[in-house]
């Protein structure tokens, strides 16, 4: 796993400590929808997932999370308009999976190409890493491990430990994914049209029972395709090294030539990998990384100028235009908004 390459963890919380800080699944029942115009705020909407987002595509961010908590089970739909690097980790006692309902391009999940035909296993000892594409609508399910085991038969413990040891992607036949996808879309459609259902214990218990059955069936019949993921895994390694290199040299702008030399690959190979897997080019990627660095620093910097200079932007007019194109607002607006929250 490349979590350490893709994100520098806060000094006070290392990856292995996440399960200590993460709250358990909620015991009660609730149904709510939360929208967001900020990708960092979006990352915090799913409680207990310990997520961090970095925006890579340009434009104002729009997102929402519609979620249902039922007696220790968490179902949700999450929409994100821009492409992101997502990082997170769940408690060891929670099994979480997801399936894309809609997306504009393929993504990369833990080194494997992601599509609507993929089952995402978010659980795992080292956390998950996800390059999520633009216009992604993800359906997710988080369950208590012990409850799921009751639905998996005698070999359940061994199977669940194997499948959910590390976060990864599973190739699934359409016949296996369709029932799960239909359950996740149908249940939310019914709850939107008839919210009173959440106050009916029999209905909620029935829904929980069906979800547990579907998840158990899917994980019991899991398959994988190592050949299909090998090329994407190599690209994912390269991206991790690229991010680490950029973050270590924030005081001196990194060029495409610098990146090629560091990775020991040709410019053509670098261009192909970024275009094929991230749907962008290396120049735009490097600029996005530096702009995200500025945005993070605006939380603690004394001024916008200080943050811009720290990340190598020395033409303030050009920087402001690039920042607004990337995030949909001027850096001064972000700075004032973040200050007002402190």
Automatic annotation (TrEMBL):
Record-linked InterPro entries: Homeodomain-like_sf, HTH_AraC, HTH_AraC-typ_CS, PchR_regulatory_protein
Matching SMART domains: HTH_ARAC
GO molecular function ontology, one term from the record: sequence-specific DNA binding
Pfam families in UniProt: HTH_18 (PF12833)
Keyword Transcription annotated: yes
Keywords, comma-separated and alphabetical: DNA-binding, Transcription, Transcription regulation
Superkingdom as given in the UniProt entry: Bacteria
Domain HTH araC/xylS-type: 240-337
PANTHER family in UniProt: REGULATORY PROTEIN PCHR
Identification of the protein by name: Helix-turn-helix domain-containing protein
Originating organism: Pseudomethylobacillus aquaticus
């Amino acid at each position: 796993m490349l979590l350490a390459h893709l994100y520098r963890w806060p000094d006070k919380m290392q990856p292995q400590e996440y399960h200590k800080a993460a709250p358990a699944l909620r015991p009660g029942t609730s149904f709510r929808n939360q929208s967001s115009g900020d990708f960092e705020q979006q990352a915090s909407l799913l409680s207990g997932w310990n997520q961090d987002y970095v925006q890579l595509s340009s434009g104002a961010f729009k997102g929402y999370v519609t979620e249902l908590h039922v007696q220790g089970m968490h179902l949700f739909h999450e929409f994100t308009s821009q492409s992101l690097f997502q990082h997170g980790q769940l408690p060891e006692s929670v099994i979480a999976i997801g399936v894309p309902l809609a997306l504009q391009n393929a993504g990369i999940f833990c080194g494997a190409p992601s599509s609507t035909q993929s089952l995402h296993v978010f659980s795992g000892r080292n956390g998950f890493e996800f390059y999520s594409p633009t216009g992604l609508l993800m359906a997710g399910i988080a369950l208590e491990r012990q409850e799921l085991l009751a639905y998996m038969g005698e070999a359940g413990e061994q199977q669940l430990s194997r499948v959910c040891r590390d976060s990864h992607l599973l190739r699934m036949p359409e016949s296996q994914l369709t029932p799960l996808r239909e359950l996740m879309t149908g249940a939310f459609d019914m709850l939107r049209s008839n919210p009173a259902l959440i106050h009916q214990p029999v209905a909620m218990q029935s829904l929980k029972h069906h979800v547990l059955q579907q998840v158990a069936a899917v994980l019991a019949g899991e398959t994988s395709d190592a050949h299909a993921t090998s090329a994407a895994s190599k690209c994912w390694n390269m991206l991790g090294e690229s991010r680490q290199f950029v973050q270590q040299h924030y005081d001196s702008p990194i060029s495409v030539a610098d990146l090629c030399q560091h990775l020991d690959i040709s410019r053509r190979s670098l261009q192909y990998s970024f275009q094929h897997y991230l749907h962008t080019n290396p120049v735009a990627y490097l600029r996005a990384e530096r702009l995200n660095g500025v945005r993070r620093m605006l939380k603690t910097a004394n001024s916008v100028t200080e943050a811009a200079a720290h990340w190598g932007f020395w033409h303030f007019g050009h920087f402001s235009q690039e920042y607004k194109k990337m995030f949909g607002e001027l850096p001064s607006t972000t700075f004032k908004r973040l200050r007002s929250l402190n």
